[in-house]
Amino acid sequence: MAEEENSSSKPKETYPLFSFSNLNLQGLGFGLFGSPEKPLPPPPPCVEVLLSEESSTVKSNAEPIVINDELTLLKGRVSTFDVFGVANSDLLAGKYEGGLKLWEGSVDLVKTLCSEVREGRLMFKGKRVLEVRCLVSGDILCSQLGCGHGLPGIFTGLEGAAVIHFQDFNAEVLKHLTIPNVKVNLMKKLSQQHFLITNKTDMSISPDVRFFAGDWSEIHQLLHCGFNMDQQKATDDPEQKGCDGYDIILMAETVYALSSLHSLYGLIKKCLHHPSGVIYMAGKKHYFGVGGGTRQFLHLVKKDGIMEACLLAEVADGSSNVREVWKFSFK
């Protein structure tokens, strides 16, 4: 994976690439070259992180990310050493899952969502949104459902989403990066509308912005879940077929590890509103060396047979292998 981001004062729209420079493949359960697999540490407990738990010890330095001529978002910059005590590392299996990096798929996703809104194909006002950004290790699911910087979710807030939930594997990422990014991007607009973002404080809540940490195998216990998909297939009750859950699920760079795709898809089906919920997914076509990619996820969705896919964007800019943005909806 990429080296630490350039600390130059002049912002550059560059993003890390996917590589194994700091990755312990044995720790990810691949068992390369016949070596025994090392057991992964247990995942941290799933918790809700309150807006008031923003870190006061490590400050992120906000810098602009130009999405297009009409939209510029601010993102923080913090080092893995300051937060996790790990220098020049993108991944430490079971401890740190890459959430402090701005992955290129997140920006691809915001650009695509912006185009969808501009063309009148998408509206966020009043919607319930879950941003998932996550990197994974072995069979352990680590959640951008892992949001990291949270830029796609922040964009939905600027567009009027009523409920925005951010999820990442690491609570530290939420405290040091996601929450500051949400505040610096959303607070100005919301204050102009006489609203305050809060989470279980004595102030009003509008919109409902919340933050959750934990891995994909257990985080559904804290998120808004819809009606179980297997039960939906077995019932003819129209009242039961309509359910809660999220209207829109956003995820970027979540499909790189082949071993995690079934668990990711299972979580999506638990959390997506049926029948009108949609998923927007950004990722690389292939993640060489770990077997994942957008096409592997598409194969899983097609085999299940309950959703259809639509390619919205393809990016081949030479900074990485081909990247794509897809939309999934129920048939």
TrEMBL record:
Organism superkingdom: Eukaryota
UniProt xrefs under InterPro entries: Methyltransf_16 (IPR019410), SAM-dependent_MTases_sf (IPR029063)
Keywords for this protein: Cytoplasm, Methyltransferase, Nucleus, S-adenosyl-L-methionine, Transferase
Molecular functions per Gene Ontology: protein-L-histidine N-tele-methyltransferase activity
Places the protein is found: Cytoplasm; Nucleus
The keyword DNA-binding is annotated on this UniProt entry: no
Statement: the UniProt record of this protein carries the keyword Nucleus: yes
Main EC class the enzyme belongs to: transferase
EC number per UniProt: 2.1.1.85
GO terms (BP aspect): methylation
A Gene Ontology term for the protein's cellular component: cytoplasm
Family affiliation: Belongs to the methyltransferase superfamily. METTL18 family.
UniProt-recorded name of the protein: protein-histidine N-methyltransferase
